[in-house]
Amino acid sequence: SKDVPGGTSPEPSNLSAVKRPSDMQPDNISTSSHLPSCQSHVSVSAPAFVLDLHDSSSPDLQRKKARIDSSDNRSAITCFGKVTVTLDREVVSDGCCSNEKEASESAYKVLWQHLCIDALSEGQTYKSAILEYFNKHGFQNPAEEFVQNDDDTTICKLRLSGAFIFHDTVGSTKKKQAEQQAAEVALKHLAKILNRGPISETEKNFKGVLKESLETHALSAPVYDTDSKDVPGGTGPEPSNLCVIQTPVKQPSVLSTSSHLPSCQSRASVSVLDPQDSSSPDLQRKKARIDSTEIDMLLTVWNLKPPHVKVENIEYDENFKCTVEINLENFTFTNKQGYDTKKKAIHKTYMLFGCAMGIFEASIDEKTSSLQVKQHFSQKSLALPQEDVEGSAKAFCCSLKNITYSVIYEEQGPSECEAKLLVLKKALGALSPLFDYTSLTAANSPEKVQDQLSFMLKGADQKDPVISLDGSLVKTSIRLNFTDHTVKCTCKSSKKAARNHLSLRILSLLGVKTDSDSQSLRNRLDEWFKQQNLAQPVFEDTEEALGAKATFSVQFTCCSPGWENSWETAKKKLVEELKQRFQFLND
Questions:
Q1: What is the pLDDT of residue 519?
Q2: What pLDDT does 478 receive?
Q3: How far is CA 7 from CA 4, 10, 74, 75, in A?
Q4: How far apart are CA 72 and CA 69, in angstroms?
Q5: pLDDT at residue number 170
């Protein structure tokens, strides 16, 4: 053991290992707050190597003790990285919606999923959660833009712009490593927004990957900074709330052990930007390495190669399935609404019951409702409901008695929790009219909605719902970047027809549904590119007398058509979809 010349602090590990018992305050030595959210919590309650601090007979120990005594007032310096990313990106609502309010909420939900923000509070919408979150951290609120489609549906685009700051809360004694850790945090939570594919678990150059991801979208390079903290006695500081996008975490004030906490706590109680946190469903989905051999071969066959065609990323999303089974026994449904005739009261009552049980849709002919319900029961060899009509003229009410029937509701969600919440809300909404609750408002947590449903069933002497998580479904997608790509048409009878045909082919390549007989396909194509803020395709005549060619640049996503039971099946469906799309590149 050597004395440290010039007052240089000793290695932090040595300092923390042999700190004097009198200096070991609970707030300083509990290290559980430094660990990832889903790893074991460890608290230092003894030196790392065994030394009898009272035994001064050993010269080595005397020297070590002297070194500790002389360094108690010294500090080690730990760097915490910070990276500022300037964004100018769009997030689009999931599918087409019937109105602007629905489209807006859909877009904010997509953004909420991309950023891995904590679960919503009761009564909170995705939009209010995002706006509250952005205001809290000083981010510029997303700008909303609504696009009306030809079929009277609406999509919403959210423009993200301005500076987004990400912090490393782990810290490092090396400035460069602290910056790498900050870049890793940014990548983990901007991956979807930057259309970035899965990051290799062996990746070490996070700064390079982040810079490349931003350059792909012509965004400015990230700006790094580090905060240096003096750490008394070489112990790690309390991380407090250093992370910008983070949920406050109460630090322990007494010694703790892993037995005091569950092995994997709720995401609501940990920092959502912990670079080691693998509990987020989005991050779990992207962990698997995606084998793109078949897709690479397909691109080669079609001669779609850089610089004109690039693959931005290939990824897969996972949806979890959840079911709720309701078992009605000797149940009576009383429709208290009065009707002009007995026949109408019967039809209306069967209509309500059939829709709630999922036997038919609300769009069926109401007059056939009783017949369809009875046929359905007969096919399942179930006793038919007993009709009981009461009342007088213009106030007839109908009841269906002695109903014994099982119905299963199914929903999907990006996480098991979300899937459970969705299916419980679906069951509650469908069944509430049968239990004389016409306007029930569901809570925003699965546990509370389950309570609502259970109490409603128990009030009619029915059994609790049976909830089952039924695995997951997978969908794959690829993002392609076409730059100055040219397609030709020489098979039409006029230049105008050739240009119209080219417009149809480009739209079909992009997956835009059109009427092939439309005479305004060129206008439809130009309008689509305008909506995406892209330069319109350039049309020119070819050397052939009646030919035409079009040059365009576009980035678009192609997905497997539906949710599949396995990644391999989803990938196969994606390859089939790409084959169909690429056919439109040929004349």
A1: 61
A2: 92
A3: 6, 9, 9, 11
A4: 6
A5: 84
Query: DSSP 3-state assignment of 194?
Result: coil
Long-range contacts at 189-193 (CB < 8 A, ≥ 24 apart): 189/114, 189/115, 189/116, 189/245, 189/272, 189/273, 190/85, 190/87, 190/164, 191/282, 191/286, 192/113, 192/114, 192/282, 193/87, 193/89, 193/91, 193/114, 193/115, 193/160
Residue 247 burial (CB count, 10 A) = 16
pLDDT per position as a tens digit, 467-506: 999 888 888 999 999 999 999 998 887 888 899 999 999 9
CB 377 within 8 A of CB 458: no
CB distance 125 to 112 below 8 Å? no
| Range of lowest pLDDT (36-40, 98-102, 581-585) | 36-40
Bridge partners for 311 per DSSP: 480
Give the DSSP letter string of 203-230. Answer: ---HHHHHHHHHHHTTPPPPEEEEEEEE
**Order of strands, edge to edge, in the sheet holding 75-92?**
143-148, 154-167, 75-92, 223-232
Which helix (H) or strand (E) segment holds residue 103: the answer is: helix 100-115
Q: How far is CA 163 from CA 113, 166, 547, in A?
A: 20, 10, 48
The string of pLDDT tens digits covering residues 179-201 is 999 998 888 878 778 877 667 66
78-92 per-position pLDDT tens digit: 889 999 999 998 888
**Once rounded to an integer, what is the mean pLDDT over residues 432-437?**
92
The average confidence (pLDDT) of the chain is: 77
Does the structure show a pLDDT above 50 at 17? no
Domain residue ranges of the chain, discontinuous segments joined by +: 5-75, 81-287, 295-314+475-585, 321-471
Within 244-292, where are the H helices?
281-287
Tokens coding 586? 């040929």
Instruction: Look up residue 237 and give its two tokens.
Output: 């500081």
pLDDT digits (tens, 9 = 90+) for 361-403: 988 999 999 999 999 999 999 999 999 999 887 789 999 999 9
Identify whether the C-beta of residue 116 lies closer than 8 Å to the C-beta of residue 167.
no
Burial class of residue 301, CB neighbours in 10 A (0-12, 13-18, 19+): exposed
**Going by C-beta distance under 8 Å and a sequence separation of 6 or more, which residues neighbour residue 381?**
none
As a whole number of angstroms, the distance between CA 358 and CA 355 comes to 5
Token pair, residue 55, equals 């035994």
**pTM (two decimals):** 0.48
**Sign of the CA dihedral running 286, 292, 295, 296:** positive
User: Are the CB atoms for 343 and 441 separated by under 8 Å?
Assistant: no
Whose structure tokens read 């002389």?
Answer: 70
Best-predicted range by mean pLDDT (35-39, 202-206, 467-471, 580-584): 580-584
- Cα–Cα distance measured from residue 520 to residue 442, given in angstroms and rounded to the nearest whole number: 46
- Could you tell me the two tokens for 571? 């990938």
Three-state SS at 162:
strand
Distance of CA 54 to the CA centre of its chain: 56
**CA distances (Å), 539 to each of 489, 498, 581, in order?**
11, 10, 21
Cα 269 to its chain centre, rounded Å, is 18
